[in-house]
């Protein structure tokens, strides 16, 4: 018994110490994954099924916006059949695939190509998302109990999108919009001027001058109304896409720049 206690106590202290160090060092990861909430939601889901079975009620005064579409950037190996299966009321067709000019800029190339190719026939609401449906490791940035894009889109208030013009699908400020993130390393004054160099100046006041701070909740998943998209001419989106093609920044770096500028592109304040 003494030998057991002699080894058990140091082992327990070691485990607690390691956990404390990991928690302090990776507190942001803990915040992103919200591990306790995830575990509880997973347990509930085991017994009662997905929250898709219980969609949020329509609030009083909210109408329905029927004409909507989901746009995703994906590679051939990624399965996106979950959209048709879980979101049948969206105007999607798996045969409507895009071919982008180059494979660069992460999701930004697909997003901009869709707008350019469909500029004259856009639906009333456009949701731009990643191709993964859910998952602890791949979809941590989706703000639903099981990180489910299906649940997120089912919960989206379309009348709000129409009224506001733009809605980030992530509510958690971390990372991207916390005060310590707003001196954005990806969007400095030089990059800002490069991106908006060929864009309209009159439609969105102030975009010609780089702001001191740029902040937006990550990670390039958002909804926007057709009217807001059309406030910019098609040539603006062509210019943004050309910047992605021409810039010396890498695939990941150029995509990250646009990730922190979508809200500005669609008429929102820099922070």
The pLDDT mean sits at 76
Strand content: 5-15%
What is the multimeric organization of the chains shown? Answer: single chain
What radius of gyration results from the CA coordinates?
21 Å
What is the helix content? Answer: 40-55%
List the secondary-structure elements in sequence, H or E: HHHEHHEHHEHEHHHH
Structure classification: alpha+beta
Explain what you see:
- The protein is α+β, with helices and mostly antiparallel strands and 271 residues long.
- The protein is built from twelve helices and four strands, in the order αααβααβααβαβαααα.
- It has helices at 2-25, 27-33, 35-48, 81-86, 107-117, 149-155, 158-164, 189-196, 226-229, 234-246, 251-259, 262-265; strands at residues 68-72, 125-129, 166-168, 222-225.
- α5 (107-117) runs antiparallel to α10 (234-246).
- It is globular, with a radius of gyration of 21 Å.
- The N and C termini lie far apart (61 Å).
- Residues 46-53 and 55-63 have low confidence and may be disordered.
Please describe the structure with a list of short key phrases separated by commas or semicolons.
alpha+beta; 42% helix; globular
